[in-house]
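User: Last request for today: this protein with zinc ion, please.
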Amino acid sequence: MPHSTPSFCQRHPKALAGWRCNTCGAALCPECAVGRRVQTVELEACGLCGGDARTLSIHRGVVPLSHRLKKAWRYPFSAAGLQLLIALGLFLTVVSWLTEMSFLMMRAPLIALYGGLFWATFFGLVRESARGDTSLDIPDFNDVFRDAIIPGLRGLMVFVLASLPALAYGYLAHRGASAKLDAFAWFLQWQLPPGLLSDPVFWGLLLVGGLWLPMGLLLAATGQPPWRMLDPRLVLGLARGLGSDYLLTTATLAVLVLLQGVAHAVAGGLRALEWLVISRFLSECVTLVVPFLAAHVLGLLLYVRGDQVGYGDARDYLEPVLGSTRPLRDAPSLHAMGGLTEGRAEPGSPPEEAPATRVDATEQLSALATAVGARDVPRALELYAALEQLPSSRVPSEHHLFIGQAAAVEGNFPLAVTALERAADVAPDSPTAPRALVMLARVLGERMNDTARAEEVYRYVLHRYPDTSAARYAGERTRLTSD
Ligand SMILES: [Zn+2]
Ligand SMILES: [Zn+2]
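Assistant: Here's the final one, the structure of the complex with zinc ion:
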């Protein structure tokens, strides 16, 4: 299945195809596909031959990072972004106030907590944005060491590593010019030796550090151990995998650094107003906007290109071509089509030989395929029962799914559960699997009143098949049931 170029409809060459028929292979636009509702699960079928249609997916990268970045600035001002901004702003205000109020001894751990809170949230945001989700809650800090101190150290380390070569060079090469300057004054009081700023080597090292910095942050956010951050082969390989988007991200972050300078100036002004704690809180919030954006931008880079560097599952990077667009027309329900044969205008299914004759499994399987193709529910159920002793993997998952749907419609819920479970089992990587599981959860929850098991299945769909319409559906259901 090619995922990089979209297909066009077989009958409407200018319309993007959102589905492909499993039977006749036609690419289908919303006009040529038909929707089919089973219970309340939406499925699609081919409008040309009536076969089951599968949703076509395409790589997220068809919407390039450059395009996504144009909308990225909105993130800190979205409902989810503002909520997190205010929560973290409050936390940091309290911690920084405590730091000022406390004895000297207590300051170091409080400063570490402040940095840890900040970096834990930053790295969390990178990961959430990389999943295409931006509804991060403040980490719950059950374990202060793991949830705050470690992320804080990682964040600090990345910045130290990025600036160390330039600073070390500056110190060693330009020490002679001002012999009295010791390293301590150098680093802590920013007394730059004369001549340093006109030294191209210093700027070159600074540039290298700046180019590495986004990679360091990405590796830290994804929990890579420190030595991997400094493995030149790994870093260069990753940079090559991310390609020009890495440079685009780095350039965007450079602009954000300048913006952060402005934010700090504004924050200083706010603090100078001295509206007690409000000044402090507002200034914390103002200085958080740019870091939030930076984390979101880094996450977006992984969201679009992460599969090229082995981040996450390659399947996660595929999305339905037409998003949530549905076929324009709906097919008559499965019940009306299959239940009884009188109204059926289907040309297939010639009168079949009596099932009493002992046909072998292969013949029965092809008879099942014919019955499913003709949507002949009674015949399909009969053949399915006859194939019971065969390993379920011999029956294609679409046929299990068909039986599951049909059994659910007919009220045979135990059979529906069995068939739907098999549909997901025999081809867990096919698009049929998440659809079968959602239907399974519905049968369990709404027909058999087993909400606990239904919930379990919905959660599994969310976890195993994120970014599918089934997962979106499951997400809505679990939210409804957990409220
Ligand atoms: Zn077809
Ligand atoms: Zn069409």
